Amino acid sequence: MILVTGGTGLIGSHLLFHLIANGNKVRSNFRTQESLDKVHKVFGYYADDPSHLIEQIDWVQADITDVGGLDSLFDGVEYVYHCAALISFDPKDFKILERTNVEGTANVVNLSLKHGVKKLCYVSTIAAIGPSIKEKEVTEENEWSEAKASVYGITKYEAELEVWRGSQEGLSIVIVNPGVVIGPGFWKSGSGSFFTYASKEKMYFIPGGTGFVTITDVIDAMTKLMDSNVHTERFILVNQNMTYEKMFRKIAPQLGVAPPTKEVSKFMLECFWRWDWVRSNVFGKRRKLSKSVAKGLYRQKKYSNEKIKSELGFTFEDMDKALAFCCDKFIEQE
User: Fold this and answer.
1) pLDDT score at 136
2) What are phi and psi of 197, to 5 degrees?
3) Left, alpha or beta for 170 (phi > 0: left; psi -120 to 50: alpha)?
4) Dihedrals φ, ψ of 175, to 5°?
5) CB-count exposure of residue 29 (10 Å: 0-12, 13-18, 19+)
6) pLDDT tens-digit map of 84-126
7) Bridge-partner residues for 60, per DSSP?
8) Buried (b) or exposed (e) across 222-236, using 16+ Cβ within 10 A?
9) Superfamily of the domain at 2-188+211-240+302-317
10) Considering the entire predicted model, what is its pTM?
C-alpha cells in the first residue's frame, strides 16, 4: 500500500493519477468533498472515465495535524509520499503554517517509524534552499539562512529537519525541492494564477525570475527516487530558470492574448508591500505581498538541477509542450 498525503493538491492529485494508472494500491487523505471534486477535474484531463480511477483510491478523511485520527491511515502502508502542506506568505499565518507544515510533518514521520514504512518521499520547496552566493546557481548544499526567507520557506525548512530526524531514527527518506510547479487544474492559486493573470491581458509583469518545473517532471522524479536505492538525499527539481516576463511571453500567445509589457518597478514594489502591511494591520485584510517576498522579486534566482540528472540520469520534459497543454486545458474550462 502506498500512502499519499495531500492527495487533493496539485502535486498530490497528479501523483495519485500516475500511481493508480500504473496499477498501484493507493490510499490518500482528504478533508472536504469539494477537495475531491478538484481531484476529479485533474483526472479528467488525462482519462475518459476519471470516476472509475478515483474509486480505486482508498480515501480516508483525516488531517495530518490530528494525531488521534491519523494512526489508521498508516495501517498496511509500505511507502509514503508526503505532499500535504499549507502555502501562505502572510506573516500572520506563521503559527498555522508551523502547525501544518512542521507539526504535521513530524506526525507523518513518527507514524511512518511506528508502522515500519519502508521509504518516505517528502515534497519540500526551493523556498527551503539556502540563498545564492555571488549570483551563482543555487545547489542543494547552499547554507540555509532565515534572514531573507518567507514564513512559508521557514516552516518548510523546519519540516525538512523533522524528515532528517526521522532518517536518523531509521526511516529511509528522500526529499525533493521543486521550483514553481507548472500543471493544470488549480487556476486560482500557485502557478495556475499565471494563466489566469495572463488571460486577462494585464499590462504589468513582476521583475526577477525563479526556477520552474513541470508537474510531469516532479511526479517522474519522485517515483523514480522512491523506486531507486537512493536515500537520505535531497534534490532540487527545476526544469528551467526563467524570468517572469519570459514565462508570460510563453503563456499569453497560446491563450490568444498579448503578454504584459511593463515591468513593475522596485519603487512600486516597495510602496505596495508597505501599503499591503497597512491594509493588513489597520483593516484586517490578508497580506498579498510581504516584505521578504517583495525583496525576493528584485532579482533572477537560478537553481541547479545537476544533482538529479547525475544521480538518476534524469531528463526533463519540454517546457513549451507542457505550457501548451496547460493553456489548452485552461481554454477548455473558460
Assistant:
1) 84
2) -65, -45
3) left
4) -125, 135
5) buried
6) 998 888 888 899 999 999 999 999 999 999 999 999 999 999 9
7) 29
8) bbebbeeebeeebbb
9) NAD(P)-binding Rossmann-like Domain (3.40.50.720)
10) 0.92
**Residue 106: all three cell numbers together:** 513530524
263 phi, psi to nearest 5 deg = -80, 135
| Contact by Cβ (8 Å): 205, 246 | no
SS (H, E, C) the chain: CEEEECCCCHHHHHHHHHHHHCCCCEEEEECCHHHHHHHHHHHHCCCCCHHHHHCCCEEEECCCCCHHHCHHHHCCCCEEEECCCCCCCCHHHHHHHHHHHHHHHHHHHHHHHHCCCCEEEEECCHHHCCCCCCCCCECCCCCCCCCCCCHHHHHHHHHHHHHHHHHHCCCCEEEEEECEEECCCCCCCCCHHHHHHHHCCCCEECCCEEEEEEHHHHHHHHHHHHHCCCCCEEEEECCEEEEHHHHHHHHHHHCCCCCCCEECCHHHHHHHHHHHHHHHHHHCCCCCCCHHHHHHCCCECCECCHHHHHHHCCCCCCHHHHHHHHHHHHHHHC
| 110 within 8 A of 169, measured Cβ to Cβ | no
Residue ranges covered by each domain of the chain: 2-188+211-240+302-317, 263-294
- The mean predicted confidence, pLDDT, of the chain is 90
Distances (CA, A) of 235 to 3, 122, 155, 314: 21, 11, 18, 12
State residue 169's pLDDT score: 96
- 8 alpha-carbon distance from chain centroid: 12
* Nearest alpha-carbon partner for 257 in 195, 207, 333: 195
